[in-house]
Amino acid sequence: MFGLFNNKKNQSVERDKRLKYFIEMTKRRQDSVNTFGLRDEINKLKTIKSKENKLKTVLNEVEQKSDIVMKHFSYMHIASEYKRLIKEDPKYYHHQIEVLKKDCALFPRFIHQEREDNKNLGNQHGDPNYSSFRELAIAYERTGEIEEAIKISRKAIELGVKDNTSFENRIKKLEKKL
């Protein structure tokens, strides 16, 4: 009987830890995206130049922030908006690549912060996915910068980046294009 009570109590404690973690991560993600209301603002703008200017302004604001997790999610959102602009004008690959490079450079500090947060919140979650490396490799590939795509894929492997892709397979595919 006492074992059953302890088990339920432990489950409740674990559930509370997971909920606390979820609330903290959701808050950060909302702060990184909703603070700027970026997608809504971009959609209201009429010209591609005004959209570009808005993204540059937001990027400058993000770079002034110190919260690593917030920066990561903001960079990802900005890169996503540039990806939408690429459909209108491929010159925006350059802008997307620059933002993704900044986010990839942030990875070691981001993963350290995530691990600290998990430890402080009592969570045992593994490292989160970090799709900037994949997105950067794809952008490089689409702009014909195959060597850069291979290089960033190798860097992802070296850093132990977790993503829903196989960087090894990506490298093999890219090497065939050389």
Offer a concise description of the structure.
This protein is an all-alpha fold.
What are its keywords?
single chain; 178 residues; mainly alpha; 2 domains; 8 helices; 78% helix; TPR_rpt; TPR repeat
Principal-axis shape equals globular
Number of domains: 2
Mean pLDDT, to the nearest integer, reads 84
Strand tally: 0
Q: Helix segment count?
A: 8
**Uncertain parts:** none
Rg over CA atoms, rounded to whole Å, is: 19 Å
- The proportion of strand residues reads under 5%
Give me the strand/helix succession.
Answer: HHHHHHHH
Calculate the terminal CA-CA distance, rounded to whole Å. Answer: 67 Å
Structural class, from secondary structure content? mainly alpha
Question: How much helical structure, as a percent, in the residues?
Answer: over 70%
What does the main sheet amount to? none
Keywords: TPR repeat
InterPro entries: TPR_rpt
TPR repeats: 130-163
Describe it for me?
- The protein has 178 residues and is mainly alpha-helical.
- The protein folds into two domains: 11-127; 129-178, no CATH class.
- The protein is 78% helix and 0% strand.
- It contains eight helices and no strands.
- Helix 1 (2-34) packs across helix 4 (68-86), helix 2 packs antiparallel against helix 3 and helix 5 (92-120) packs antiparallel against helix 6.
- The protein is globular, with a radius of gyration of 19 Å.
- The mean pLDDT is 84.
Lay out the secondary structure:
Elements: H1 2-34, H2 38-44, H3 48-63, H4 68-86, H5 92-120, H6 132-142, H7 146-159, H8 167-175
Helix pairs in contact: 1-4, 2-3, 3-4, 4-5, 5-6, 6-7, 7-8
